[in-house]
Design goal:
The chain is flat and about 80 Å long. It is of the alpha+beta class. The longest helix has about 45 residues. The protein has five helices and six strands, in the order ββαβαβββααα.
Amino acid sequence: MLSELYIRDFAIIDELRLQFSFGFNVLTGETGAGKSIILDSLGLILGERADTSMVRAGCDRALVEATFELTPALQQLLSPLLAEQGLEPEEGAEDVLLLAREIRSNGRSLCRLNGATITLGIMREVGDHLVDIHGQGEHLSLLRPRAHRPLLDAFAGLQEEVLALSHEVGTLRAVQRELARLLSQESVANLQNGAAVEAIGTGSININPQ
């Protein structure tokens, strides 16, 4: 569930922190009070397209942060995606997920998940599992093909198998990253050795006697 929404310098909002309780929450207010702006800010967290007009007048950036408390079922649902991207949560913090979106007046946009920089596509994919917005321009998961497999896995009771697979994927990604690091080090070493051999061949090595 969405437990907290923090908004700063977004549209007409200077700074706002909303905390939600478990169950049904209602935001009320007269026309023009800013209810739709709060929904727009939540849309940014779900990966919707940003616009520089969203930055409050006179400011250089807008920030939206959303804190989600994850149920065990949702943890299992998100685990393969996070593992695939190398975004596994720290031990003991698996039940909390923080999404942040920063919009700058120069048009740049920065997305973060638990403090790590991510692409807009990953933010959108994670957001698809967290929120459904019903209304104009519905953000409805049943209409998104990429949401169908997790729903089928849940219906078939395959949560344990999905979790086991996510762990294997996480291990594979870690090995791939380590292999890439070692290959990069090897490439640098080969270049250095090649430069040394060339220097010996041209007699350009400078030896400073002690």
